[in-house]
């Protein structure tokens, strides 16, 4: 009998905990008002949701598709332009590399002109004539331009 009483008393001691758990099982709802404030309530708020497609959506979809096509065309044009620029650059590099022997000769001539020594030329008759400072400056400028234009 004492064991039965302890059993009953122990069971009775836990009843408030079980009842308390059931009372806390009420659902809470979260919602946000028009100002952006978040609210929590125990009662649900009914919201009407409109799932109809707006009447002007076909126009909007058509405009979006047109814009997408235009963007793709612009991307293709930019890609073609970039490819052409790469091809032109490669062709220019090949042309300059083809001129390598002439470039060495031009650089040697430029170095000679820039030494500050007197420089001479042989005319058609084989006679030697010395360049004036103005003639030297002109030849230095012309040789530099040729190197920049034709050499890598």
Plain-language structure description:
The protein is mostly helical and 152 residues long. It contains four helices and four strands. The strands form two sheets. Strands 1-2 form a two-stranded antiparallel ribbon. It has a two-stranded antiparallel sheet with strand order 3-4. Strand 1 and strand 2 form a beta hairpin. The mean pLDDT is 79.
Number of helices: 4
* Strands ordered across the widest β-sheet: 1-2
Q: Radius of gyration, Cα only, in angstroms?
A: 46 Å
Helix-strand sequence: HEEHHEEH
The helix content, as a percent range, equals 55-70%
Distance between the termini: 110 Å
Per-chain topology:
Elements: H1 2-23, E1 29-32, E2 38-41, H2 57-98, H3 100-113, E3 120-122, E4 128-130, H4 133-150
Characteristics:
mainly alpha, two-stranded antiparallel sheet, 4 helices, elongated
Short description:
With 152 residues, this protein is mainly alpha-helical. It has helices at 2-23, 57-98, 100-113, 133-150, and strands spanning 29-32, 38-41, 120-122, 128-130.
